[in-house]
């Protein structure tokens, strides 16, 4: 495949590409009628496009075809166009894409086709193609280069282990290449995935991504008074945040992932033109605003188009449980020193996941890359949307060592950080030498800050 770096070019719309791929899948696969959902995973590895198909019939998931697509297949150029369509300069494109085909009305069903895109997760092995290699990462980044902050930790580790030098863009490349002012690409991508396959799991993914980064609020109706230091929003300002009335009589707090999305909603209500006044806030603070203000029944993200509406109980669930915002932010920024500081803070917490097996709780381990291998990486989590079982940070780290884990992975999906057992021992030894650093504190959530105001 070509190693010329990709640049955005006009082409078919994303939905048109998904429809083409979905139609191709339906034309080449021979399946028994009656399925509810067809899930088609795609990845580019070793110069080939690989595919994995799963059928869902009620609660049953049936594995299907897995392997490389024929190199002369008509769908190959369409998959490449989908990589280019999703590509954001500096941010990259998907390592794995999932095309979801929904079927309704058997025996003559109608089909709806959507897609989700994993820009950060390490591609899994589906058949005999072998694990993703440093050379696969190199080929991907030569075609779709990223800033260093956007290269996943697993990709950097593969390259380091195999002595492969990866291409890296300058730190400012991502911001310069973003004409629509996207402030939170991870939330935007999660909203896209929700739109493609709207279910509870996809909605929780949106909430999960809102546990870090920023969102935009429309505060056009506010009385803004500049601060003494020239701040746009001074202490004497009265903030009125945009809310939207819903057809059922409820009200939603509106938030946006980009200036373009906010402008599109503003244009609906201001036919004479103009620009909204936007305030950039921590996404966690936006969630807390809703949880603290009973007038809001929902949070709606990017409502101008097909966005995502999250109910108050789901937001309250995310906000009321302990969380570690500092560690989540550190992983987003790939900042190891900040991550360690977040683990050692006096009020720091991590969450330990557990599954009930044979009547007892069993810790959650990451699925090993090699088929049949024993799990050796314990999963810890930074918030309830990641997993909902509480433990203190140090207790969780000691539990990992006592359980014989060779590594600990913090969070199951990007942003992810992995610490080896030796690093855990060094960290715990540091705490024992300097108990004042960690204070032996009981678990508890850190301060979340106040909301910005009411509409």
Shape: globular
- What is the end-to-end distance? 53 Å
Assembly of the depicted chains: single chain
Widest beta sheet: strand line-up = 3-2-1-4-5
Give the low-pLDDT segments.
1-11, 388-392, 434-455
Overall number of domains: 3
Please identify the structural class as seen in this structure: alpha+beta
Q: How can the largest sheet be summarized?
A: 5 strands, antiparallel
Classify the beta-strand content into a percent band.
Answer: 15-25%
The count of DSSP E runs of length 2 or more, i.e. the number of strands, is 18
Kindly report the average pLDDT value. 79
> How large, in whole angstroms, is the Cα Rg?
23 Å
What is the count of DSSP helices, taking H or I runs of 4+ residues? 15
The percentage helix is 25-40%
Domain SseB protein N-terminal: 188-317
InterPro entries: SseB_N
Protein name: SseB protein N-terminal domain-containing protein
Region (Disordered): 434-455
